[in-house]
Amino acid sequence: QDYTDRVEIFTKRGSFSVALESLLPYLDCRIDSALDFGFCPVKEVAERTITVTNTGTKQFQFKWTSEVPFNIEPHVGKLEPGQSATSKVTFEPREASFFVATAICQMRDPAAPNDCISSKLKLSGIGKYPFIRTKASDLDFGTVITGKEAHQTLVLENKSLVTARFSVQKTDADLENCFTFHPTKAEINPETSFQIRVTYKPTTSGTFSCDSYKIGTAGGNVISLRCQGQAVGPEVTLGVRSLNFGDTPENEVVVKHFNITNHSWVPAQFQWVGLHPGCGFEFVTPCGEVPGRDKVHKGSLTCTVRFNPQEAMNYYRRCYCLINNQNTLLYVDLLGSAFNEKEKKRPAPFTQRHVDIHRARLEAGLGKSTPEEIEIALASAGEGGAGGGDDEDEPLDADARDLLVTTMNASATAGAPPPAQLWRELFTPASDALALPFSLESDELDFGASLRMRGGDASPIYVRNNTAAKAAAVWRVPLDGAVWAVDPPSADIRPFSSQAFKVVFKPGTPNRFYYTTLECYVFYKTMRSFRLVNEVSFVP
User: Fold this and answer.
1) What's the pTM?
2) What is the helix (H) or strand (E) element at residue 371, kind and residue range?
3) Where are the beta strands (DSSP E) in 110-163?
4) Could you give the CA distance from residue 327 to residue 318 in angstroms, rounded to a whole number?
5) Euclidean distance between CA atoms 137 and 6, whole angstroms
6) For all residues of the chain together, what is the average pLDDT?
7) Beta bridge partner(s), residue 90
8) Which residue of 188, 284, 348, 415 has the smallest Cβ count within 10 Å?
């Protein structure tokens, strides 16, 4: 049993007493009697802590037992006298209701299993459904320049009595995402609102994006949101569709200018394709940036083109201009005639009308028609020409003759070609176009690695004449020193045959990558002099 007593001690100045106590070892603890969670969102977890303190004189092991939807972890432990242990109590209601439960903590002496005490903890909480809402179910960003960002603010309101933890999820996760949310997860306190920043950043011009999203909580409602926007590229146009340099003496330089206009508010980068210094036509600024417009003026940049012919013949080339993030492919037709007065070489001058008619014949599948065949067909159809002939001598049938007559009026209604046609012209190799009168058997040569000290690597290239008339081919090599050469630089090509040329690559600097575009101008032999050319059958 326990013993208690008191001893009184006397001194000269007085007396005092000392309490004596001899107790048996015992178990005891200190635990709160109740824990209330208050309101908690349904299907979400609320957390609290409970502390167990060993106030007895013996070591004990404790073990908690609780009921759903409450849980206590860690639920077991060991405490020495005077020590404390904290456990996490969670409340996860599965429905909107009031919950009350009793958790029991049993404490047992490991040396005396029958020595055991217990304490009770009352647990309570109320499950409530969270409810969020927004005034906007659609976010329309309108038109946005590709690569730029547009922002809108989405306001979420929590009208419930519990905290709403929301998340944003895309309905079609496998589609490209042009819209971003910040943040995508957060908490909204009761009776408050929260702002989400929504950003639209398109990457492809001409596309319309419409994505659906779900914003919801674990145990509450779900909001459906639709975001849409259209990507537009910068609107850039060229001041001209054609530049005619006219008759130019051989080896002289003629310069012309035109404007590139930017109608949009952002700068636009441009790049002319396939032109290198030393070509027949040369852009002084092959790439750059056109400034955006302001409130008064449109953005503009002057583009300078040089024409430097080195052979007396007709020159024509369609040059394409790529605009970053713009779907429309821009182009300009460059044409000019070079003559040599001393050698009495003067080809017939030509205009954009001749180019339009020739391209109309290409699109009609009549690109292989020779000048003589065109003259005979037009004369037979009553459209002029050098003379007529019997039907049995006609190189073209009646349908082809009618189609040929139609193409003669192409220049009257000629406008910009359809976008698909322009892109096809840019990306389709010449050897794949069946209606071309002349073609290359290969439009690319790769010399691979080459030794600088060797005399130069050579690779053959073949120019094919797909027509029944004799043609001439003249190569124009860019001014890259002695790196590139074509042998022979010019040659005649018989009807329906190919002519081999040798392209020589002789690098002058080691560890350098070389790339260039070689021009080959091919024309009918009858086009070399204006005296041999009939206006109606001219072919550039």
Assistant:
1) 0.68
2) helix 371-380
3) 112-128, 132-133, 138-145, 150-158
4) 18
5) 82
6) 87
7) 47, 71
8) 415
Segment holding 360, helix H or strand E: helix 352-363
Q: Give the position of tokens 């060991």.
A: 78
| Structure token pair of residue 294 | 């302001």
User: What pLDDT is attached to residue 222?
Assistant: 92
Query: Which residues on adjacent β-strands are paired with residue 486?
Result: 503
Per residue in 41-75, pLDDT (tens digit) is 999 999 999 999 999 888 999 999 999 999 999 99
C-alpha span between 36 and 100 (Å, rounded): 9
Q: How far apart are the first and last CA of the chain?
A: 126
CA 415 to chain centre: 31
Residues 6+ apart with CB under 8 A from 251: 308, 309, 310
- Please classify residue 475 by burial: count the beta carbons closer than 10 Å to its beta carbon, then call 0-12 exposed, 13-18 middle and 19+ buried: buried
Q: Are 272 and 321 in contact (CB under 8 A)?
A: yes
406 Cβ neighbours under 8 A, 6+ residues apart: 360, 364
Q: Which helix (DSSP H) or strand (DSSP E) does residue 412 occupy?
A: helix 410-413
Residue 184 pLDDT = 94
On whether the CB atoms of residues 462 and 487 are closer than 8 A, the answer is no
CA distance 464 to 517: 19
Q: Specify the 3-state DSSP secondary structure of 12.
A: coil
3-state secondary structure of 45: coil
- What phi, psi does 456 have (nearest 5°)? 120, 140
Query: How far is Cα of residue 121 from the mean position of the Cα atoms in its chain?
Result: 60
